[in-house]
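Much of what follows relies on a compact textual record of a protein's fold. A complete example follows; check for yourself that the lines match position by position.
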Amino acid sequence: MAFSMPAFAQDISELKTGEKYEIKDDDYTNKDVDMADKMRENGKIYVVVGVITIIFIGITAYAISIDRKLSKIEKEVFKEKVNS
């Protein structure tokens, strides 16, 4: 998220019911990503990237496994059709 949650929550809590939140020019030019910066400082971003990589590899391996099994079944069914 491109904004600080405590500051955003404080700004929202100051609003009255039905009142709109004012969007300022600074909101459009804000390039800070506080959460990513903190995770990078603590080294946790590498854990997140590692977990996502492991999940991706697992899903890919599962898809390849299912494809091989399906191909084997398709060949068996095709052979049975040809032999009948």
Residues 5-83 form one domain. DSSP finds four helices and no strands in the chain.
